């Protein structure tokens, strides 16, 4: 495995003020000397070759240098630099980048087809690994991120299957799912000298063919939960009403009248519509 190391280069301004006077001296020697013109020409050629060693490094940028196919180092210092002219230099951006995957269809761990997408924030931290360990590190990010997303989606269910808070699901636990996705993507991209700064789910939905059925199931679950809460509250209110009537001696009810009162109160409290009162002018019997 090739790891990043510091390459050889010097300050470009110092090299410029050293090469420029040398070039002037050599050309003057060629023009005014009649005896060693060949030496002057050779010196001029070497001086011109030295000009090829100048290069510029922008902020958050690296220059990966190779010599005849061998990696010799990376230069990250900004500004004008000079190195051996025979070094080949390739630019690698160290800036933070965003990658948004396409919406992919995958089955969750219950077999339900869902649509999911992610946003991965990444950057190059080891320029040598990014250049030499993979063929194209940008394409590598795309393919490996989508592969990690598929694996993550198949490991969890879309919705939690119980009221247990430890039951992690894609929709109900976004922070835990994002952290797991970040770790999984980092394990894959770390081989190419890349660092994942953030990874989050950007789109999550049931596939169109089952979206309607799943919506009905969610609505039914919500209705059942709401009804359970209403019944629980209604029973408590009926119990409180009977206890207060008995404690304050407002009316003495036998078991049959208590049953009728409980029935009427539950109908009123649990009904979807407002109750229509009926005035009874006769006897209960």
UniProtKB/TrEMBL annotation:
SMART domains membership: PHB (SM00244)
Pfam families: Band_7
Keywords: Membrane, Transmembrane, Transmembrane helix
Coiled coil spans: none
Keyword Transmembrane listed: yes
InterPro entries the UniProt entry points to: Band_7, Band_7/SPFH_dom_sf
Domain (Band) ranges: 52-218
Subcellular location: Membrane
Membrane protein topology class: Single-pass membrane protein
Sequence intervals crossing the membrane: 12-31, 37-57
Major subcellular location class: membrane
Source domain of life: Bacteria
Annotated protein name in UniProt: SPFH domain-containing protein
Originating organism: Paraglaciecola algarum
């Amino acid at each position: 495995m090739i790891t990043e190391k510091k390459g050889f280069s010097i300050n470009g301004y110092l090299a410029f003020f050293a090469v420029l006077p040398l070039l002037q001296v050599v050309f003057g020697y060629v023009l005014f000397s009649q005896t060693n013109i060949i030496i002057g020409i050779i010196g001029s050629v070497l001086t011109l070759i030295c000009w090829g060693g100048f290069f510029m490094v922008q902020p958050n940028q690296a220059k990966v240098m190779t010599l005849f196919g061998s990696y010799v180092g990376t230069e990250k210092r900004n500004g004008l630099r000079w190195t051996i002219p025979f070094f080949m230099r390739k630019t690698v951006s160290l800036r933070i980048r965003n990658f948004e995957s396409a919406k992919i269809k995958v089955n969750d761990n219950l077999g339900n087809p869902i649509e999911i997408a992610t946003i991965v924030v990444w950057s190059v931290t080891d320029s040598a690994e990014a250049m030499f360990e993979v063929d194209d590190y940008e394409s590598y990010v795309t393919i490996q991120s989508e592969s990690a997303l598929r694996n993550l989606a198949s490991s969890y269910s879309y919705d939690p299957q119980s009221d247990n808070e430890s039951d992690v699901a894609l929709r109900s636990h976004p922070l835990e799912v994002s952290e797991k996705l970040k770790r999984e993507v980092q394990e894959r991209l770390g081989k190419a000298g890349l660092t994942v700064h953030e990874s989050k789910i950007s789109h999550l939905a049931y596939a169109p063919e089952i979206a309607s059925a799943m919506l009905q199931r969610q609505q039914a679950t919500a209705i059942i939960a709401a009804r359970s809460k209403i019944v629980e509250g209604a029973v408590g209110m009926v119990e409180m009403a009977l206890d207060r009537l008995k404690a304050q001696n407002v009316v003495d009810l036998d078991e049959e009248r208590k049953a009728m009162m409980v029935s009427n109160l539950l109908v009123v409290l649990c009904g979807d519509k407002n109750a229509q009162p009926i005035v009874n002018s006769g006897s209960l019997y």
